[in-house]
Amino acid sequence: MPLSIKNRYFYAMSEKTMFKLQLPTDPFWVKNVVESNIEELLTDHAYCEQKAATNAITLIIQNPQIPELVSEMAELVKEEMDHFKRVHDIIIKRGYSFGLERKDNYVNELIKFLKRGGGEAKRTESMVDRLLLAAMIEARSCERFKTLSEHVDDKELSEFYYELMISEANHYTLFIGLARKYGTGIDVEKRWEEWLAYEGEVIKRYGKAETIHG
């Protein structure tokens, strides 16, 4: 039976063997970096939501033969774009400027870990890896939103990021669940552990910029 949105959240947050990032975000990132430039954080966040929607569309294009995946990604696109609009609304309401797109070096480093290749077997492996990449990004975003919600000295943003933390946990559970369901012949648990280890090394170089993954 599919998990409800609420149950997906609690499942993701309680399954420590699944949701086990190697390095937590230091609250220093919020107090000494983010709070000095909320405008930059929000602009970067808006683009992160837009890119998440684009990734969901890409997964649809690459996997039209899987109806469930297509349907789930179609719903996800709508949710991510709603989040984009909500962040953009906050930017405008506060009199900030919505700047140009920022590069997400963290995500670009994760992309280097993707398995690629041709043939049916490799195609499945590539699909699973793209789902795990998405799960990894959602897991870290969830963790960052949790840190923001707990430490930012801004009531509106604290409540906003608590709400989005739950959404990111749901997305994480969705992606990793699809990887498990359609990863026939692939040791998805082992590959997820490899992703966790790789991300644990990558994230050591971040936490110093006023961006969601910076």
Please tell me about this protein's structure.
- This protein has 214 residues and is mostly helical.
- Helix content is 71%, strand content 0%.
- It is built from eight helices and no strands.
- Helix 3 packs antiparallel against helix 4 (67-93), helix 3 runs antiparallel to helix 6 (119-151) and helix 6 (119-151) packs across helix 8 (188-202).
- It is globular and about 50 Å long.
- The termini are far apart.
- Please summarize the sheet with the most strands: none
**Count of individual helical segments:** 8
- Please count the beta strands (DSSP E, at least 2 residues each): 0
Instruction: Please tell me what the overall shape is.
Output: globular
- Rounded to the nearest angstrom, the radius of gyration is 17 Å
* Helix percentage range: over 70%
For the termini, the CA-CA separation is 37 Å
Tell me the structural class. mainly alpha
Task: Extract low-pLDDT stretches.
Answer: 1-6, 14-18
Succession of helices and strands: HHHHHHHH
β-strand percent reads under 5%
Mean pLDDT: 91
Offer a quick outline of the entry.
This protein has 214 residues and is mainly alpha-helical. It has helices at residues 5-14, 28-33, 38-62, 67-93, 105-111, 119-151, 155-182, 188-202. Helix 1 crosses helix 7 and helix 3 packs antiparallel against helix 4.
Note the topology.
Elements: H1 5-14, H2 28-33, H3 38-62, H4 67-93, H5 105-111, H6 119-151, H7 155-182, H8 188-202
Helix pairs in contact: 1-7, 3-4, 3-6, 4-7, 6-7, 6-8
Features:
214 residues, mainly alpha, 71% helix
